[in-house]
UniProtKB/TrEMBL annotation:
Protein name according to UniProt: Electron transfer flavoprotein subunit alpha
Protein family membership: Belongs to the ETF alpha-subunit/FixB family.
SMART domains attached to this UniProt entry: ETF (SM00893)
GO molecular function terms listed in the Swiss-Prot or TrEMBL record: electron transfer activity; flavin adenine dinucleotide binding
Domain Electron transfer flavoprotein alpha/beta-subunit N-terminal: 10-191
Record flagged with keyword Chloroplast: no
Cofactor note: Binds 1 FAD per dimer.
Cofactor: FAD
Binding-site residues, FAD: R214, G270, I271, S272, G273, A274, I275, Q276, H277, N291
GO biological process, one term: fatty acid beta-oxidation using acyl-CoA dehydrogenase
Lineage, highest ranks first: Bacteria, Pseudomonadati, Bacteroidota, Flavobacteriia, Flavobacteriales
Protein keywords: Electron transport, FAD, Flavoprotein, Transport
Database matches in InterPro entries: DHS-like_NAD/FAD-binding_dom (IPR029035), ETF_a/b_N (IPR014730), ETF_a/FixB (IPR001308), ETF_asu_C (IPR014731), Rossmann-like_a/b/a_fold (IPR014729)
Length: 324
């Protein structure tokens, strides 16, 4: 076995919520392992208040720096960037990997400023080279790719959700308590509380999204969308006009001007497939459309399509799925 260069491990920020790792933590860890193998080094994760870090060993993490600090129990970009900077320097890391959640998108640019590092967001593949680091990223709301090089000493990579997937790669994991000295505990911005609909899968975390459009005729018909989503353990979403008309909350609007969706399965019901809608959802792996107009543009973008009346098809589909 060749000796690993542990002096400059790849650092990975593993996001958690209420003490539990989010799925993105395992995906970024899998990716960091891929980068570390290319560099002949190891992976160090930084965890903020995660209760059980042992699962990281499954995804190639060799060491975890455990931060247990009540002041950091809620995400705070300023303080987390400060702590990650110290972890990067302590480990001598040359590459830092994050995901692309809302928190990551806030955190990564701050960290880049603290470290004087170059940052490439929306990365979809392992780097072609690691020094300078050359990566492929999506551009123009997923309509194109760009090849980007980062030539700074420390490089930060933001991995697109679902682009790399989970890769099991069990290794031995060591844990180390880590207490970064925070410049100030008097943060400029504090999250006071997070108001989350109980038990609802959020669009950002969802593996499956069931989305409804104007073809559903009115808010009174959303029961069948919710029923299908609940059966699949999916999040619900909608097209822009649907939220504009107040049929559904704006938090469900997906597309170019709404939330991006990078799910494994996106089911579009009564949605025509306008370019602005597709721009926000086409990073999803498998797209299924149910529409009564065979000429609807969505059929060209989808992997699977059903031509027919949503009011007949959706309840039948849900009924069938409930049998499993
Ligand atoms: P429609 O286009 O009205 O389509 C309804 C579909 O339902 C039709 O294809 C019809 O055949 C089908 N249908 C009707 N009855 C049934 C039935 N019984 N069973 C099955 N199918 C049925 N849109 C977004 O979604 N997200 C965005 O982020 C977004 N951003 C925009 C930004 C800009 C600057 C602009 C100009 C527009 C944007 N839009 C966005 C709007 C977009 O152009 C479309 O108007 C919108 O996506 C259409 O929504 P829809 O598919 O629900 O409605």
């Amino acid at each position: 076995m060749t000796k690993k260069n542990i002096e400059m491990s790849v650092l990975v920020y593993t996001e958690s919520e209420e003490g539990k790792f989010k799925k993105t933590a395992f995906e970024v860890a899998s990716y960091a392992k891929g980068v570390a193998d290319m560099m002949g080094t190891t992976v160090t994760a930084v965890s903020f208040n995660a209760k059980d870090t042992s699962e990281l060993a499954q995804y190639g993490v060799n060491k975890v720096l455990k931060i247990d600090n009540d002041k950091l129990s809620k995400f705070n970009a300023e303080a987390y960037a400060d702590a990650l900077k110290q972890a990067t320097e302590k480990e001598g890391a040359k590459v830092v990997v994050l995901g692309q959640t809302a928190n990551d998108k806030y955190l990564a640019p701050l960290l880049a400023v603290h470290l004087g590092a170059g940052y490439a967001s929306n990365v979809v593949e392992l780097p072609a080279n690691t020094d300078p680091l050359q990566v492929k990223r999506t551009a123009f709301t997923n309509k194109a790719f760009s090849i980007t090089q980062i030539s700074t000493d420390v490089k930060i990579v933001g991995l697109s959700k679902n682009a790399f997937g989970l890769k099991e790669n069990p290794v031995e994991l060591s844990e180390e308590e880590f207490s970064p000295s925070l410049a100030s505990e008097d943060f400029k911005v504090n999250v006071v509380s997070v108001d989350k609909a109980a038990d609802k899968v959020t669009i950002a975390d969802a593996e499956i999204v069931v989305s409804g459009g104007r073809g559903l005729k009115g808010p009174e018909n959303w029961g069948m969308i919710e029923d299908l989503a609940e059966t699949l353990g999916a999040a619900t979403a909608c097209s822009k006009p649907v939220s504009d008309m107040g049929w559904r909350p704006h938090s469900e609007h997906v597309g170019q001007t709404g939330k991006p969706v990078a799910a494994n399965l996106y089911i579009a019901v009564g949605i025509s497939g306008a370019i602005q809608h597709l721009a926000g959802i086409n990073a999803s792996k498998t797209k299924v459309v149910i529409n009564n107009d065979p000429e609807a543009p969505f059929f060209k973008a989808a992997e699977y399509g059903v031509v027919g009346d949503a009011f007949e098809i959706v309840p039948k589909l849900t009924e069938k799925l409930k049998e499993f």
